[in-house]
């Protein structure tokens, strides 16, 4: 055979072999039929490029070790969590039971929570906790900038390190800088171990580029915890009047639920670095502080797939009167949209508060292309005025709250590693509901959608096709 003939045979094998392999893999592993059909179609039309894209973005390669730290951790005198488990009755009982089975985490009583709005109020409290640390600090942030705010946190972490506190910092491999992570270098000068989640410059690791750790966690001495939507950066200080100020909501926690928060960080840290954080320095015996039942719920493209979304869907199903959302990005999938619209059709008041303009215009375009169906069903969509609010809040019937890092879009619900907190308390729910009502802005109407030009509508619909990869 000539060289040309051999090359032709080789290219033919590639032309037909790659699509066949992708087809087999997608059929066996893709649960979403639309995604499965889409990937197969792309690979048959563009065998080489389509296969490369499928290898990078279509395969879930995250196989995380069994998450049984609660069972492995041993306390003297038995497991104190057994006495702190809370059984929920009434209308919310089915929701509590479902999330317990889904997450394999108990609903824990004896907790206290403080709501902190914006970095102006949250950062001083967080820094105060870090400065008071005596044993351990675990900090995870999607964005951790090396600006003045980041340096304030770095200084506090460095001082804690010098007085003997064990400090672990985890940042996302994309959110905190892919090619240059300034905060990692800054912390390294103080000998602080800072790891980047899912980060690699090697081509064979590139498929992980689409999987991001979007969680925000701070746990001090295993006793005080912080979580919510707040990143670490100057834009979150409204008093600085930056080019695009970001309002947000964070939560200070005390009580047994902090143990679940610490475990969530420990699992991510072990997955990223191989180091397991165990012992009373990181996971002390939980002590009741308040009287609020709470539970941590995590999700990600691993064993936790869709758990936060399932919790939201169940809460919407059980809602009797009112469901409120505040989210910076609102592009839910068809399943979520259908459930929300059905609730509105059966008479539940649905309020969704979104920013008129977010920090990602392309996401606003995709959102706008998707809003008509909600108005048709009777949902109320509110366009909040600046500053851009990054809070992620959900309240059902002013009895149950679900807060954390999760946006209402496909990326957050399917691809990101997220963390939320469910709170069974009428006062907390009422306060959050009042906050959302106060900041909801103007109500969107069908006329607002109809008056957009055809070109704008086409642009919005086209951009929507590229989610969740934006």
From TrEMBL:
Keywords, A to Z, come to: Cell membrane, Membrane, Repeat, Secreted, Transferase, Transmembrane, Transmembrane helix
Give all residue intervals belonging to the PLD phosphodiesterase domain.
Answer: 209-236, 385-412
* Chief place where the protein resides: membrane
Single Gene Ontology BP annotation: cardiolipin biosynthetic process
Q: Where, subcellularly, is it found?
A: Cell membrane; Secreted
Q: What does this protein do?
A: Could be a virulence factor.
List residues traversing the bilayer. Answer: 6-28, 35-57
- What does the record give as EC number? 2.7.8.-
Give Gene Ontology CC terms: extracellular region; plasma membrane
Q: Which InterPro entries match?
A: Cardiolipin_synthase, PLD-like_dom, PLipase_D/transphosphatidylase
GO molecular function per UniProt: cardiolipin synthase activity
Protein name according to UniProt: Cardiolipin synthase
Enumerate the PANTHER family for this protein. Answer: CARDIOLIPIN SYNTHASE, PHOSPHOLIPASE D
Q: Specify the superkingdom.
A: Bacteria
In the UniProt record, the signal sequence range is none
Pfam families from the UniProt entry:
PLDc_2 (PF13091)
């Amino acid at each position: 055979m000539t060289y040309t003939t051999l090359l032709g045979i080789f290219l033919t094998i590639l032309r037909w072999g790659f699509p066949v392999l992708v087809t087999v893999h997608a059929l066996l592993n893709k649960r979403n039929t639309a995604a499965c059909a889409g990937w197969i179609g792309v690979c048959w039309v563009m065998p080489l490029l389509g296969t490369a894209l499928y290898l990078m973005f279509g395969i879930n390669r995250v196989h995380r070790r069994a998450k049984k730290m609660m069972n492995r951790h041993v306390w003297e005198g038995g497991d104190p969590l057994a006495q702190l488990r809370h059984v929920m009755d009434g209308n919310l009982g089915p929701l509590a039971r479902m999330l317990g089975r889904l997450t394999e985490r108990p609903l824990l009583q004896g907790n206290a929570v403080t709501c902190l709005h914006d970095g102006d109020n949250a950062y001083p409290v967080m820094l105060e906790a870090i400065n008071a640390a005596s044993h351990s600090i675990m900090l995870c942030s999607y964005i951790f900038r090396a600006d003045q705010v980041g340096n304030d946190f770095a200084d506090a972490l460095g001082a804690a390190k010098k007085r003997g506190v064990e400090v672990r910092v985890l940042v996302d491999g994309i959110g905190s800088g892919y090619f240059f992570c300034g905060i990692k270098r800054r912390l390294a000068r103080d000998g602080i171990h800072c790891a980047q989640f899912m980060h690699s410059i090697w081509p064979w690791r590139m498929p992980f580029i689409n999987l991001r750790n979007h969680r925000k966690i701070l746990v001090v001495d295993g006793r005080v915890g912080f979580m919510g939507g707040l990143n670490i950066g100057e834009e979150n200080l409204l008093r600085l009047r930056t080019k695009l100020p970001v309002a947000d909501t964070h939560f200070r926690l005390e009580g047994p639920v902090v143990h679940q928060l610490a475990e969530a960080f420990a699992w991510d840290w072990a997955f990223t670095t191989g180091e397991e954080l165990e012992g009373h320095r990181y996971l002390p015996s939980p002590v009741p502080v308040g009287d609020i039942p709470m539970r941590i719920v995590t999700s990600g493209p691993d064993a936790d797939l869709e758990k936060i979304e399932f919790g939201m869907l169940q809460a919407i199903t059980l809602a009797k009167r009112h469901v409120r959302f505040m989210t910076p990005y609102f592009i839910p999938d068809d399943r979520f949209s259908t459930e929300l619209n059905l609730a509105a059709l059966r008479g539940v008041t649905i309020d969704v508060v979104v920013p008129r303009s977010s920090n990602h215009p392309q996401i606003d375009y995709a959102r706008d292309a998707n809003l008509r169906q909600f108005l048709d069903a009777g949902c109320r969509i509110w366009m909040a005025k600046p500053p851009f609010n990054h809070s992620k809040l959900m309240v059902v019937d002013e009895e149950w709250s679900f807060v954390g890092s999760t946006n209402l879009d496909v990326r957050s619900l399917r691809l990101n590693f997220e963390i939320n907190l469910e709170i069974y308390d009428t006062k907390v729910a009422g306060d959050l509901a009042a906050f959302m009502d106060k900041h909801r802005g103007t109500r969107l109407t069908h006329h607002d959608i109809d008056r957009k030009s055809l070109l704008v509508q086409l642009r919005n619909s086209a951009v929507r096709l590229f989610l969740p990869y934006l």
